[in-house]
Amino acid sequence: MVKGVFVDQWNNEYIPNRVDWRPEEGLFRVKPYSVNFPMSQIKERQATMWRYQEALPFETTDNTITMGEGMTPLVPLDADHPNLLMKMDYLMPTGSFKDRGAAVLIAKAKELGVSSVIADSSGNAGTAIAAYSARAGINCHIYAPASTSEKKLAQIEAHGAHIHKIPGSREDTAEAAKQAVEKENLYYASHVYNPFFYEGTKTFAFEVWEQLGEQVPDALILPVGNGTLLLGAYIGVQNLKEAGVINRIPRIIGVQSEACAPIARAFASGEPVSPAENRGTLAEGIAIADPMRGKEILEAVKDTKGTIVTAPEDGIKSAGQELAGKGFYVEPTTAATYAAYQQHKAEIVHPDEKAVMVLCGSGLKK
Ligand SMILES: *Cc1c(COP(=O)(O)O)cnc(C)c1O
């Protein structure tokens, strides 16, 4: 079976190429393919996300762009909370979980013979795409809002990417990137549209499963803006189930900012996801007013019998301080996940249950 074919919402198949970044209607997904987890072989490989090669969309195993990403530590919050485990994705090569997606997406772009890519982001996705493009010898154009801080742009620029500053909102930046993709026929290395990104983020679930002694926890607590980690984790647990190595899936608990919560609102009301207002939040990384994959995210969370909660704005700062007091130095968007857990824990996890929370982004980038 060919790995890495795209499908649209009616399951029409498309062979990925260098220019088509969306079907006539809706968005691309990767068509499910047969996966397996031969543990005795996996255990002999390096401790990176690439050790699950039988579950990744590549026909060959030569990978010259990896920086050893993945297999981040999984440790208890502290000695008093042995059942709440933190998955330390902020220790990735560029400081966030986005490296999982970028490593696979850019390896695929290289396989396709792409010479230039475009992505739009002002933060961690842009940095990850820029870094892996540099390793792959691919030209990288990052579209970012003009208001983006110089410090964030400096990391992207350091990897040799060309920055295009766009006046206006985050949505204006996305629009400008799409126009450039269409006009210049460049490869759209979008973490939102390009489904290869999710083929990378799904390794999050594989690692948690292996690190827990080939078991899944009762719940996964994950931030959700565009849902690139949440949807990846969902695909990952589906893969484990299809391969027959687990027989139940964890509940996925998504965390939004209370200041921008289109998915939480839709989940609570039973209505479809519609654009929300962004009232401004410290948790910038999840403040996505109009998530393109909102419907997919709702379906995934419901399928796992999970829920969506929001982070109280006035709890983010103290949550970050509390995490730092336990040794974890993370960015405010990540502190928001913990703030939401603190506020909602009675509703979302039983004290005897095992839960895994992700720490997505490093505090060193603030
Ligand atoms: C990207 C990012 C998020 C949100 O991910 P989505 O794909 O938008 O759901 C959360 N935290 C950090 C640190 C991120 O970089």
From TrEMBL:
* Listed transmembrane segments: none
Q: What class of enzyme is it?
A: lyase
Instruction: Cite the entry's keywords alphabetically.
Output: Amino-acid biosynthesis, Lyase, Pyridoxal phosphate, Threonine biosynthesis
Instruction: Give the record's pathway.
Output: Amino-acid biosynthesis; L-threonine biosynthesis; L-threonine from L-aspartate: step 5/5
EC number(s) for this protein?
A: 4.2.3.1
Q: Which residues carry this modification: N6-(pyridoxal phosphate)lysine?
A: 98
Q: Which cofactor does it need?
A: pyridoxal 5'-phosphate
**Known InterPro entries for this protein?**
Ser/Thr_Dehydratase, Ser/Thr_deHydtase_PyrdxlP-BS, Thr_synthase-like, TrpB-like_PALP, TrpB-like_PALP_sf
Question: Can you state which reaction this protein catalyses?
Answer: O-phospho-L-homoserine + H2O = L-threonine + phosphate
**Which Gene Ontology terms describe the biological processes this protein takes part in?**
isoleucine biosynthetic process; L-serine catabolic process; L-threonine catabolic process; threonine biosynthetic process
Question: Tryptophan synthase beta chain-like PALP domain spans which residues?
Answer: 65-361
Function in brief: Catalyzes the gamma-elimination of phosphate from L-phosphohomoserine and the beta-addition of water to produce L-threonine.
Protein name (database record) = Threonine synthase
Protein's organism: Halobacillus alkaliphilus
